[in-house]
Design a protein that fits this description.
Layout (H helix, E strand, L loop, with lengths): L3 H9 L7 E3 L2 E9 L6 E6 L5 E3 L10 E3 L5 E6 L8 E6 L6 E2 L8 E7 L5 E7 L2 E7 L6 E6 L3 E6 L6 E5 L9 E5 L5 E5 L7 E6 L8 E5 L6 E6 L4 E5 L6 E6 L5 E8 L2 E8 L4 E5 L5 E7 L5 E6 L6 E4 L4 E3 L13 E7 L2 E8 L8 E7 L13 H8 L3 E6 L8 H5 L7 H16 L3 E11 L1 H12 L6 E5 L5 H7 L2 H11 L7 H6 L13 E6 L7 H14 L3 E6 L8 H18 L4
Helix pairs in contact: 1-2, 6-9
């Protein structure tokens, strides 16, 4: 008999995110925590040790940061998880929140850059397109940039004289370009690598008067780094002898970069000295770095976890930086790596086996969202809950995933969903052939894009899956496109090569509702009433067809958006998922 309190304890254990800190007041930090049972924003004065809850809302708060002066905390106020709202701010020391820029109407957020003088550069997305606004204290906001295609605020220079904007004026939001402008809106320089190659601005050098911008590029088929000076008109590519993909951030004096190296679902940290071009490994445990930040004293703080070990915020000084109150989450089992030959090349899968019992196991294929994301060797309470209940859990980094190069990530374009499912099926068949999985007890599940692939999978591969659990999925792609936020419409146009009006056959062949008559597996769908990413109407369309056809199904609705920030709600959802699967597999 499974001890329910054991797996629930992982969800209930208090967690904290990597703290951010004020550039000019590094003792003032903000972080997220679920210590109250709901994810909210917290302030932390490192000098006094005082911690204070900043936000308190029924459905939680996810976005927040402290400005460079350390005087103000900014946080984004949406309505019950719908992601549509305005930026609020509150004094770091306490007080009431108020609209940060009263002159800006509600929108979807599209980047925020804060200056020490009180200047803010705010990106907004609405049905009309995308805008970037220059917002000075006690002045009306000025429109700095506008376009119908996707755009976002990338960075603001230390002296506040340069603003970097990521944009897709060329029509491809999956491979963006960069533009640097002055506060008066005049263009300093543009950078674009052409079709199929994206550029993403990270941050300007943290030194006044320094016009260097750290940029991620993919000129050689994977994420790498360059330093672009838009004023001098120079580019310096940083070529590292590392097999995986890299990102970076500046050390606080601008002399070095903190390199994050992602390879085969695990991360490493390095210091790269710009003058000597030397690379030095920073020792961290084997696992995943959820975020890392250099401090003014040269130490690095980082969030770390593995599949077996819960998250912890550490420092290269050896200290644990921030510990939430209460007992820690119970550990889980380590993952095993598997490489499976697929139609597009070798597929990386991560496998968690239950601590008791023997193969073949009832098996859960837990498909990640995105699709521009990947499964990693990181701690996941949901996966651990399945393992506790005797299931093997398989994660698949299918074509479309990040971390394996640009070609692997972009292989799904024009044949959306069907390509990913070829890889998932190849791994599914491998688990059966090797005796890991019981072919009569295989659950296909996932959230967001993973939920989409779940519904598409049970329609196009009906004999391969015993039960389906799809959370916040795309279920009717055309209706989803009509109702989703503009940024995702731009993403879909890039993915399919146009809108549903432009390429209707491609949307039809990639839509789960097209194949609903072929569904055999019982299906549970979890849906957020306020979800702007996978809106409720298109899910209702799919549920209506299941009902008309008499297919066994259930629906779990909740009053939030694209997921929940409330711990007890997540436990209820996890309970519903496992109860449904066990019932239909004859295990309860």
């Amino acid at each position: 008999m499974v001890d329910d309190e054991h797996w629930k304890a992982r969800f209930r254990a208090a967690r904290v995110s990597l703290p951010g800190w004020a550039r000019n007041a590094p003792h003032r930090s903000t972080y997220r925590s679920n210590v109250t049972g709901t994810w909210e924003i917290y302030a932390w004065d490192r000098t006094t040790g005082e911690r204070r809850q900043v936000t308190d809302r029924p459905n939680g708060t996810w976005m927040g940061s402290v400005d460079p002066s350390g005087e103000w905390i900014w946080w984004f106020a949406d309505t019950d998880g719908d992601e549509f709202g305005v930026w609020q701010r509150i004094p770091f020391g306490g007080g009431d929140s108020s609209p940060a820029v009263p002159g800006l109407e509600p929108s979807y957020p599209s980047g925020l850059a804060l200056g020490a003088s009180g200047l803010a550069v705010i990106g907004r997305s609405t049905e009309s397109g995308n805008t970037v606004h220059l917002c000075r204290p006690d002045a009306a906001p000025e429109t700095l940039y506008e376009h119908t295609e996707d755009a976002h605020v990338a960075a603001l220079s230390r002296d506040e004289s340069l603003i970097a904007i990521g944009h897709s004026e060329h029509g491809d939001s999956r491979h963006m370009a960069l533009r640097v402008v002055r506060p008066d809106g005049t263009t300093v320089a543009d950078l674009w690598d052409g079709p199929g190659k994206g550029l993403y601005g990270d941050s300007f050098a943290p030194v006044a008067g320094d016009t260097r911008l750290l940029v991620n590029h993919e000129r050689r088929g994977k994420d790498e780094l360059l330093i672009w000076d838009p004023v001098a008109g120079t580019e310096h590519e940083i070529v590292l002898d590392l097999p995986g993909e890299v990102g970076a951030s500046w050390y606080t004096d601008g002399s070095a970069l903190l390199i994050s190296h992602s390879h085969e679902a695990r991360d490493e940290l390095y210091r790269y000295d710009l003058a000597s071009e030397s690379l030095t490994r920073i020792e961290t445990p084997r696992g995943v770095i959820g975020g890392a930040s250099p401090r003014p004293d040269g130490t690095v703080e980082f969030s770390w976890s593995s599949a077996a070990e819960p998250p912890v915020i550490r420092s290269t000084s050896g200290a644990v930086v921030l510990t939430p109150p209460g007992p820690p989450a119970p550990p889980s089992v380590p993952v095993e790596d598997a490489w499976v030959e697929g139609p597009g090349g070798r597929i990386h899968a991560l496998i968690s086996r239950p601590a008791t019992g023997s193969a073949p196991y009832p098996t859960v294929f837990d498909i990640h969202g995105g699709p521009t994301a990947q499964d990693e060797d990181s701690f996941a309470p949901a996966a651990a809950a399945w393992v506790d209940h005797g299931f093997a859990v398989v994660h698949v980094n299918y074509r479309g995933s990040t971390g394996y190069g640009s070609q692997w990530r972009d292989a799904i374009e024009g044949r959306v969903g069907l390509t990913e499912l070829e890889d998932i099926k190849a791994v599914r068949d491998w688990t059966v052939e090797t005796g890991l999985a019981d072919p009569a007890k295989i659950v296909l599940t996932g959230g967001s894009w993973g939920g989409y692939l779940t519904l598409l999978g049970i329609g196009t591969q009906p004999d391969d899956w015993s039960v389906a659990v799809a959370a916040v999925p795309v279920a009717d792609y055309v209706a989803a496109y009509e109702d989703e936020m503009e940024g995702l419409q731009a993403f879909d146009r890039s993915l399919f090569g146009g809108s549903p009006a432009d390429v209707p056959d491609l949307y039809r062949q990639s839509s789960p509702v097209t194949y609903v008559e072929q569904v055999k597996a019982p299906v549970l769908i979890l849906a957020g009433e306020n979800d702007p990413r996978c809106p409720i109407r298109q899910i209702d369309n799919y549920l209506g067809r299941l009902a008309e056809l008499g297919r066994p199904h259930e629906v779990y609705r909740y009053d939030a958006g694209h997921g929940s920030l409330v711990v007890e709600e997540r436990i209820k959802q996890m309970e519903a998922e496992m109860t449904f699967a066990r019932k239909h597999l004859g295990m309860s």
